[in-house]
Specification:
Helices cover 40% and strands 21% of the residues. It has 7 helices and 7 strands, in the order βααβββαβαβααβα. Strands 1-2-3-4-5-7-6 form a 7-stranded mixed sheet, sandwiched between helices. Helix 1 crosses helix 2 and helix 4 crosses helix 7. It is globular, with a radius of gyration of 17 Å. The structure holds coenzyme A (COA).
């Protein structure tokens, strides 16, 4: 589990940008769901700015990655593009990357609200352990640049048909000003949640076909 190093990136990690982009693209295709696809140049910039987290094996092979974006004039922060190479999955890599990204985001943007949009159960689980709560989309940024990132998602048509108020992803928010420190009991509810997601998917797909 500790056979890899999780760290904030610097320009020396720019050489991994191409591999990261390919991994994200392949995974998006396999899952058939959306991840905002970013160019190699964008990822390389994030890496050089120290706005990304990378996990490397002791032999300096890429293990996993995620990057940090800010929106609405730094009022909101998102940790995006989380990816772990298939051979390293299930051993806590994503948990460590997300924890580091969370801590680093809080340091870079101490008053920002952190949010995420995801269809991934492991990610929802990690987020809930970090203190994120599920919220409706109106609690998220209204920055058009953020929402434009969803254009590369297969579900973009659904998002548009719902006027950006709902889609396949679950929205989760960590508000540093909130007094509500209750954690979402995701572990207990995940089976129910999986059923809910299947239902939501079939209903949304049906409705998006009826224009
Ligand atoms: C999602 C992903 C990042 C998870 O990486 P990982 O390193 O395997 O995750 P972890 O080992 O840290 O697991 C996190 C938690 O989720 C659980 N989990 C892992 N896979 C799961 C699955 N398929 N279903 C439900 N829970 C799962 C783990 O048991 C763990 O919980 P625990 O701490 O209680 O044991 C990885 O599978 C991946 O890269 N997938 C493709 C890209 C993707 O989906 N990115 C997210 C986009 S929002």
């Amino acid at each position: 589990m500790n056979a890899f190093i999780v760290q904030v990136t610097s320009s020396e990690h720019g050489c991994f940008a191409e591999e990261i982009c390919k991994l994200i693209e392949t995974s998006a295709k396999q899952r058939g769901t959306g991840i905002a696809i970013r160019s190699q140049e964008y990822i390389r910039d994030k890496i050089a700015e120290g706005k990304a987290i990378i996990a490397l094996s002791k032999s300096r092979q890429l293990v996993g990655f995620c990057y940090i974006e800010s929106w609405s004039n730094k009022k909101y922060v998102v940790n995006s593009g989380l990816i772990v190479k298939p051979e390293y999955r299930g051993s806590g890599v994503a948990t460590r990357i997300k924890k580091k990204a969370f801590e680093h985001s809080r340091k870079l943007f101490p008053s920002a609200k952190l949010f995420g949009l995801t269809t991934s159960l492991p990610v929802m689980k990690i987020n809930s352990e970090l203190g994120y709560q599920p919220v409706t989309y109106d609690r998220l940024t209204d920055d058009n640049l953020f929402w434009n990132g969803c254009q590369s998602c297969v579900n973009y048509e659904i998002l548009q048909s719902k006027s950006r108020q709902n889609c396949m992803c679950t929205a989760m928010l960590h508000d540093p000003d909130s007094n509500d420190k209750k954690r979402w009991e995701f572990v207990k509810k995940s089976k129910i949640y999986e059923r809910f997601m299947r239902l939501k998917k079939s209903r949304m797909n049906r409705k998006s076909m009826v224009v």
